[in-house]
Amino acid sequence: MKIILGSDHAGYEMKEALHQFVASELGHEVEDAGTHSQESCDFPRYAQRVGRAVVRGEADFGILVCGTGIGMCIAANKIPGVAAAHCCDSYSARMTRLHNAANVLCLGGRILGVEIARDIVRNFLATPVDDGQRYAQRREQVRALERNAEAEL
Known about the structure:
The protein is of the alpha/beta class and 153 residues long. Helix content is 46%, strand content 16%.
């Protein structure tokens, strides 16, 4: 699998640790979309880079890190086709893949330890999507909202 990583300055250290983990321990190809330092920067541009790469099929999944993970998640979800999820535990990471088919994981570099983040990433990347009718129908309703927020479901 190919994973694209991105962060702002607040998530830089966590992104660097996850880059090593995903490449070396999990054995996936990794692309680093930046930032490449702890110098202050704007998180939306990195959310855009990662989200677009996932939607275009240039990467299988994206991982975004900022201070809390919340800003990255909000920004990434503005890109049609992105299903970004902010996760702080492994259960949420599994469920967002299983039920919601999330394709971008958002983490908080200032609120999670590296070991917990690794476990969240491991579970997110290893969990398949439940293709059962109930969840597929709900995912299609979300896509309908993405196409037209005024649509009646």
